[in-house]
Amino acid sequence: MSEQKVNQQWGGRFSESTDAFVQAFTASVQFDQRMYKEDIAGSKAHAEMLHRQNILSKEDFDLIIKGLNEVQAAIEAGTFEWSVALEDVHMNIESALTGKIGISGKRLHTGRSRNDQVATDIRLWLRNTLDLIDAELKRLQLGILDLAAREYDTIMPGFTHLQVAQPITFGHHLMAWFEMIKRDRSRFADCRARMNYSPLGAAALAGTTYPIDRHISAELLGFDAPTENSLDSVSDRDFAIEFASSASIMMMHLSRFSEELVLWSTPAFDFIDLPDRFCTGSSIMPQKKNPDVPELVRGKSGRVFGHLMGLLTLMKSQPLAYNKDNQEDKEPIFDIADTVLGSVRAFADMVPAIIAKKENMYLRTKLGFSTATDLADYLVRKGMPFRDAHEVVGKAVKLGVDTARDLSEMSLDELRGFSDLIDADVFECLTLEGSVNARNHFGGTAPNQVKAAIERAKAVI
Ligand code: ARG
């Protein structure tokens, strides 16, 4: 990047050029050049609006479009020379435009300020990113559905307090993940909808004296409408905070999935196998196969939560309207976007490739007295109050613990020793299959309910 002595964009009232360190310190071009496409699209829409309103001549407008196309081509070809002295993406592009087309380039900034320009660019960039995130989240949902459809009747222990609680199906567990992602997508969609208004024309803060039509540029850029208030347009970054907050909640979900994958793939659980291509080995321990992808995603949630706090703190106490503080919104937004896109992509690739170790899942479900509630429910159906049934089954479980046997492995006589309401039909509800099949209602774990949930999910995805 080249340096430059007197700033050509606003040098008029200055008698000395900016301190070299201050120039570099206040510049944002190192990171905001990521928004070059949005900046050029915004400029084109602004120029078209100016032209349609007879503020900009046809010749100037045509030259501006042609020049902007050339600038974009140079950026994309890697031949564009970014300059720190020109501070940010906006002034770099405008200066290059003027270098190409001369005086017409200087007319582009009529009725506009970098304040509404940057507020427009970042919204456009985020809107596009939200669409990319949504597509990846949808791909993850499809991966979850794929695995859930394969494992809809695979029995595994359901946990509370990470202690075996009741038998569930693996498909049911996966569909819980699906629901979380469904809400994450809707949170991002809300964020997009609230953000999709055009700040262009707000200018520095108060609007402009030219006869602009903000509806034209808003429509050209695919915004729902222009923003209502010029001060609000250039000053608030609540959409960035909302994005960070939706992203944090989503990463919190991914970190929970990660934790489960890490646990399930340890030999201590041995519920799943993660394909080798998502794991790494150890340089010292030859036997190791580490679940790096879920571990890293779990870890990456931290930086997203941190950015949420950073953005909240950035905006807290800022007086209206624009302040240079706002330049600090971009790096967190970009980092959140990269982190979220990478994490979701890794999950979307990995989840459908998970291999369930059905026998181990089944065995672990049997070892945990997971049908104890079913036995209590059985006694209730035979007329015993639930609290008494709880007590009776607790005693049976104690015998099971003492003699290392599941309830289903006790004889009818032994079980009848706890209550004479127990008959031979008890064994139907003590089996794992009987237990899951009995939870046969909307939202329950019975395999046919899981199947129905998968069908409903396919319809709404
Ligand atoms: N680089 C600035 C930002 O990211 C652009 C707006 C600067 N406006 C100003 N009045 N200094 O916020």
TrEMBL record:
<feature type="domain" description="Fumarate lyase N-terminal">
    <location>
        <begin position="12"/>
        <end position="306"/>
    </location>
</feature>
<keyword id="KW-0456">Lyase</keyword>
<dbReference type="GO" id="GO:0042450">
    <property type="term" value="P:L-arginine biosynthetic process via ornithine"/>
</dbReference>
<dbReference type="Pfam" id="PF00206">
    <property type="entry name" value="Lyase_1"/>
</dbReference>
<dbReference type="InterPro" id="IPR000362">
    <property type="entry name" value="Fumarate_lyase_fam"/>
</dbReference>
<comment type="similarity">
    <text>In the N-terminal section; belongs to the lyase 1 family. Argininosuccinate lyase subfamily.</text>
</comment>
<dbReference type="InterPro" id="IPR022761">
    <property type="entry name" value="Fumarate_lyase_N"/>
</dbReference>
<dbReference type="InterPro" id="IPR009049">
    <property type="entry name" value="Argininosuccinate_lyase"/>
</dbReference>
<protein>
    <recommendedName>
        <fullName>Argininosuccinate lyase</fullName>
        <ecNumber>4.3.2.1</ecNumber>
    </recommendedName>
</protein>
<dbReference type="InterPro" id="IPR024083">
    <property type="entry name" value="Fumarase/histidase_N"/>
</dbReference>
<keyword id="KW-0055">Arginine biosynthesis</keyword>
<keyword id="KW-0028">Amino-acid biosynthesis</keyword>
<dbReference type="GO" id="GO:0004056">
    <property type="term" value="F:argininosuccinate lyase activity"/>
</dbReference>
<dbReference type="Pfam" id="PF14698">
    <property type="entry name" value="ASL_C2"/>
</dbReference>
<dbReference type="GO" id="GO:0005829">
    <property type="term" value="C:cytosol"/>
</dbReference>
<feature type="domain" description="Argininosuccinate lyase C-terminal">
    <location>
        <begin position="369"/>
        <end position="437"/>
    </location>
</feature>
<dbReference type="InterPro" id="IPR029419">
    <property type="entry name" value="Arg_succ_lyase_C"/>
</dbReference>
<comment type="pathway">
    <text>Amino-acid biosynthesis; L-arginine biosynthesis; L-arginine from L-ornithine and carbamoyl phosphate: step 3/3.</text>
</comment>
<dbReference type="InterPro" id="IPR020557">
    <property type="entry name" value="Fumarate_lyase_CS"/>
</dbReference>
<dbReference type="InterPro" id="IPR008948">
    <property type="entry name" value="L-Aspartase-like"/>
</dbReference>
<comment type="similarity">
    <text>Belongs to the lyase 1 family. Argininosuccinate lyase subfamily.</text>
</comment>
<keyword id="KW-0963">Cytoplasm</keyword>
